[in-house]
Amino acid sequence: MADEGKLIDMVTYNSVSDFFKDLDAKLVEMRSKLGELLRRLEGAKAKAEVLVRLESLLAETSGGAKIGGTEISLGTAKAVVNPTPKQEFDILVDVVRSLQNRIVAMERVRKEVEPLSKLGDLELRAGSGL
Length: 130
Fold this sequence. Notes:
This protein is mostly helical. About 60% of the residues lie in helices and about 10% in strands. The chain contains two helices and two strands, in the order H-E-E-H. Helix 1 runs antiparallel to helix 2 (about 85-115). The two termini are about 30 Å apart.
């Protein structure tokens, strides 16, 4: 019941070395994406800081006016239409944290299965004796 609605991928590898090549390639890809997101986050942070100051000034002069995008809930997902820089920053922070957690989890898996790398090109396909 807890996994209801979740997608599960099943991947088959021909050899142990193919598994490690794929795992390492995915880690490289995730780290690259994390780097891109961190650069984007820095830009969003600067914009968000300006918006916070602007909202503060508006609140003082107009009795609490706020600048904001529209947040829409779609089941367990949320969408923000025309997000403010602050909303964009907050979303990017969440995405960066999630990706960092996924990278850490994959690195743990990589470390745990490292002893299997000694099997090298051992075939893993059905009918190969395993």
